Predict the structure.
Amino acid sequence: MRAVDSSLTCFLPGTCGNLVEGLDFHKFLFDNVISKSARSISAHVLNPYVHLLGNNAACVAYTRVTQYIDRAGLPHTQQSEDTVVWLKQNNSWQIVHVHRSVSQDKIEIGI
């Protein structure tokens, strides 16, 4: 079973404030943008906080720091604040909603 429900809803910076439902939006990005825009990506979850909403639901809030090397070989770091809602369905936990706010600060690391 997938970790993401097929009817996933989300608010992401790339949705321009719109609520997007389903996986097609994400599939397009993974197939056409993410795999071609960076050589290497590493994401780190910092300070996660879990809110249990009963036996079958949880909300997880955390800071996500993403490091990547662009096509030119330059390193970048970005930060976002994420909230993810999980639902236990058929004895399996699945993500049903994601909200991501991106910090406008982008740290450029020159080596």
The two ends are 42 Å apart (CA to CA). The mean pLDDT is 85. The longest strand covers residues 92-108. The beta strands are 4-11, 20-21, 38-52, 57-70, 75-89, 92-108.
